[in-house]
Amino acid sequence: MRKRKIVPFSFLIIFFFIYLQPALSIASESTPLFRIDRINILVLFIIFCAVLLLYIRSARKGKKLFVRKITGLEAIEEGVGRATEMGRPVLFIPGIDELDEIQTIAGLSILSRVARITAQYSTPLKVPVNYPLVLAAAQESIRGAYLDAGKGDDYTPDMAQYVAGEQFAFVAAVHGIMHRDKPATNVYMGAFYAESLLLAEEGQASGAIQIAGTANPEQLPFFIAACDYTLMGEELFAASSYLSKESLMLGSLKGQDWMKIFLVICILLGVIFETLNIGGGFLYKLFIEH
Amino acid sequence: MKNQLNTAIAFLSGFIMILAFFSANPGIVNFSQNLLTWVTIVGGISLLLGIVSILKVNLKAIQQRGKDWIFKLILVLFVVGMSVCGIAWGIEEKTPFDWLFQNIQSPMMSTMFSILAFFIASAAYRAFKARTLEATILLITAVIVMLGRTPLGQAIWDKLPSYADWIMAYPNLAVQRGIIIGAALGAAAMSLRILLGIERTYMG
């Protein structure tokens, strides 16, 4: 089993180093290997990784971790149940950004969990997307979830559809789906821009339960006004771990919380130092000047 | 095996990007740029997937004469029509493709965007109902900000714009920064979970 895991990694490492070797040799001798102006980011990165790995390790050892209740995520199962009772589909939109956007990946991870629930309840699922790469990833996500739920036969690739590549053409297509299919539950998880309110208001008018989540702060007021539940910022990234309830995933959440406490302390110290004019702007230099 | 290979690709690609961020070595930086070019190429090729998906789903609905099938027929005709125009005459100015884009697609997108004004009004009506203390504070704040950003607000009271600016620059910005810091940490933790292969649900 362990051997099976090592083989693909070894192959890739060899491939990358064969590819990297000539690239590295191109480098002139005068250019430094490390960017000294980014040392502050590197230090924070190492601290962050260390804290996260520490908590993942303690979770692996079986330590019980408490994670506060996120109402919006608790409502997902309730929303799917409602759709099942009403005999209507669940609509899931993983944002309108490309696959290289971390919010889209977070959205797809949540899609996988939602698809597992719709598979268990045999509820129709509709996932309109506006990038073909996201389409391929969404189809794989849904297929994997249906296979995990033992409902592989119920899966069809048309559950995820590429509807339009342009932002407002995408909105028009989703409005069409909301009008025709009347989904009972709409879930918006990912990166949204000007279309957030257009989608959420239309969903509100169609009478669906709506759960939204985005890390774009300027779109949050629209979702809060038009949706029943809204995940704000980091909750979107925590959603997959929260829904999975796997100790490894929850461990990384705890590590993230400790990093937040560390940053809050740094901000408070910065305020005190700057207000009292002590430390010679040390924290300012550490975080900003570089 | 397939999932392990995917995880390995994700780990190595992420590792190279991190390395390129901290390194000034042109070899490493060029390599990371090459990776980004690969992403663009893969994205371009995958457009075919999107076209196949659109045609497959809509042709099936037309064949079955499903609800509103006529709209799907129009969509398929335009997908084919725009592609033919683009391939046959190019996409430069004064070509049939450009004419279709400027006179059909662009006005339709502007129309969709302009609906936002009505949706903002209906959402604001629901959000600003003074039912609780919090909702009342929100209502008062919103009135100050909205009036302060218009000439009418200035005409009513000349200090209103400065109060609106204060609300936007201090309480509003503080909350926004809190959300942004939280989201950035969340994104970094998620990236690390992906690189370490802990988070694999997005792969199916």
Secondary-structure blueprint of this entry?
The complex is a heterodimer of chains A (290) and B (204).
Chain A: H1 2-26, H2 39-60, H3 71-86, E1 90-93, H4 102-121, E2 125-129, H5 132-148, E3 160-162, H6 167-181, E4 185-189, H7 195-205, E5 209-214, H8 220-226, E6 229-232, H9 234-244, H10 247-276, H11 282-289
Parallel strand pairs in A: 1-2, 1-4, 2-3, 4-5, 5-6
Helix pairs in contact in A: 2-10, 3-4, 4-5, 4-9, 6-7, 9-10
Chain B: H1 2-22, H2 26-63, H3 69-89, H4 96-114, H5 116-127, H6 133-148, H7 151-156, H8 160-195
Helix pairs in contact in B: 1-2, 2-3, 6-8
The major pleated sheet of chain B works out as: none
**Biggest interface found:** A-B, 98 and 74 residues
Q: How does the helix and strand content of chain A classify structurally?
A: alpha/beta
Secondary structure: number of strands of chain A = 6
Give the radius of gyration of chain B. 26 Å
State the low-pLDDT regions of chain B, or none.
none
Q: Order the strands across the largest sheet of chain A as they lie in space.
A: 3-2-1-4-5-6
Largest β sheet strand count, sense and barrel closure of chain A: 6 strands, parallel
Counting helices, strands and paired strands, the structural category of chain B is: mainly alpha
Please estimate the helix content of chain A.
Answer: 55-70%
Q: What order do the SSEs of chain A take from the amino end to the carboxyl end, as H and E? A: HHHEHEHEHEHEHEHHH
Determine the N-to-C terminus distance of chain B.
13 Å
Instruction: Tell me, rounded to a whole number, the average pLDDT of chain A.
Output: 86
Shape of chain A: globular
- Rounded to the nearest angstrom, the radius of gyration of chain A is 23 Å
Basic shape of chain B: extended
Number of helices of chain A: 11
Instruction: Point out poorly predicted stretches of chain A.
Output: none
Q: What share of the residues of chain B lie within helices?
A: over 70%
Percentage beta strand of chain A: 5-15%
